[in-house]
Design a protein that fits this description.
Structural class: alpha/beta
Number of helices: 14
Mean pLDDT: 88
CATH superfamily of the largest domain: Vaccinia Virus protein VP39
Largest sheet: 7 strands, mixed
Low-confidence stretches: 1-19, 362-369, 386-390
Distance between the termini: 52 Å
CATH topology of the largest domain: Rossmann fold
Order of helices and strands: HEHEHHHHHHEEHHHHEHEEH
Radius of gyration: 22 Å
Number of strands: 7
Shape: globular
Helix content: 25-40%
Length: 390
């Protein structure tokens, strides 16, 4: 196993963090809480990196803010580490996953009992389902009765605001394995795999798949490895553009991974799950949550202006940024974002940054184009305590 990369030593003091170590290599699947595996999310931050950042730049009881929460990795790691959490994402799918991880059932028994309570309501709901209203591209993924059940359960879970259970359902929405609901398809990005699994050769993969037993199995997997969680800590999740959200109180740290300037199309790649959440036009959503260069850099300027009023004085803003140098004329993306904060917006100082190659096994589009490295950019809010208090 490769050794953990280390940051060059940053002398510890009231304003400078101590040595930070992270590990980009290898997989965290066997050691992270299984709540992280509730439903797939393309381009998500590795949980061990998020946990290391939380440990380094925050303290127990702090308020940690992730304005681009994605699948909720930072949010869950912060909560598990005894921090209060403020999370936000403009994507309905990302916000759902984050909310599900911040507000899970207290026990597996509670979750299974809730499935039992909701099953009758879901059965009744099926009578009102008209599959003719479902787009053809969605219908092609499912047996008609499986689709009817899935739509009924989705309606019930949304109406009852069962976000954890809805996220679990979306987690089994498509895959080629028998424990999932769709015809053979990829897990992360929805496309049918009819050439690899032709119906004539694999007829059992195109039969009806019941939902309840698969949902129960998924919930059991999610609770397989859960840390001790303090349900008294404050946890909040919003669905807004990051530059518009103003929390009720200041935060002790901002730890986030902004979107990578259309290197990932978060709406397109989650289009089937988003459809079940009520998003018919993933292209319009992508223009907002997967912005191109000019829109992304404008968004970051707006965010840095807003974050100066949110982040407590002398506290850290930690950004995990993908390398997009071939899209940016003036230099690599981490350098540009740091310059926006420290020179264009002002009020921030650049403390340190660290770059590491992303191993191919951590990339969804392995061997293809996209971000090949990530940089952790560490900024500090230079506002004085006296000015902030005033």
């Amino acid at each position: 196993m490769a050794s953990s990369p280390t940051f060059p030593t940053i002398e510890a003091s009231a304003h400078r963090p101590a040595l930070l170590t992270c590990n980009w290599s290898g997989s965290a699947l066997k050691i992270e809480t299984t709540l992280h595996q509730l439903s797939p999310y393309i381009g998500k931050l590795k949980s061990s990196i998020a946990g290391s950042l939380i440990s380094q730049f925050t303290q127990v009881g702090d308020v940690v803010y992730d304005p681009f929460s994605g699948s909720g990795t930072v949010a869950l790691e912060a909560w598990a580490a005894g921090r209060n959490v403020l999370a936000n994402d403009l994507s309905p799918y990302a916000a759902l996953l984050t909310r599900a991880k911040l507000f899970p059932y207290r026990s597996l028994e509670d979750a299974l009992n809730d499935i039992e309570r909701l099953s009758g309501e879901a059965d009744q709901e099926q009578g009102d389902i008209d599959l003719r209203s479902v787009p053809a591209w969605v219908r092609q993924f499912f047996h008609t009765e499986t689709l009817r059940e899935t739509l009924a359960w989705t309606r019930v879970l949304k109406r009852r605001r069962r976000w954890f259970m809805l996220a679990a359902l979306l987690g089994i929405l498509h895959h080629q394995r028998p424990g999932f609901l769709s015809f053979p398809s990829s897990h992360t990005v929805p496309y049918l795999r009819v050439k690899a699994f032709p119906r004539a050769k694999f007829p059992d993969l195109y039969e009806y798949r019941s939902l309840r037993d698969r949902l129960e199995a998924k919930v059991k997997r999610a609770f397989r490895r859960v840390p001790e969680l303090d349900f008294n800590l404050d946890r909040r999740c919003f669905l807004k553009s990051a530059h518009l959200l103003t929390p009720e109180a200041t935060v002790d740290a901002i730890v986030t991974s902004p979107p990578y300037m259309r290197q990932l199309d978060y709406a397109r790649d989650n289009r089937l799950r988003l459809w079940f959440l009520g998003i018919d036009d993933h292209r319009s959503l992508d223009r907002k949550i997967s912005p191109r260069e000019d829109a992304f850099l404008k968004l970051m300027r707006q965010c840095f202006i807003k974050w100066k009023t949110i982040l407590r004085p002398q506290k850290y803003c930690v950004l995990v940024i993908g390398d997009a140098s071939r899209q940016v004329e003036d230099g690599n993306l981490p350098e540009i974002i740091s310059r926006i904060a420290t020179h264009e917006v002002g009020g921030y100082s650049h403390v340190h940054d660290y770059t590491e190659t992303i191993p191919n096994e951590r990339r969804v589009r392995r061997g293809l184009t996209g971000s090949t490295s990530e940089t952790i950019v560490i900024l500090r809010n230079n506002a004085s305590r006296a000015k902030s208090t005033a």
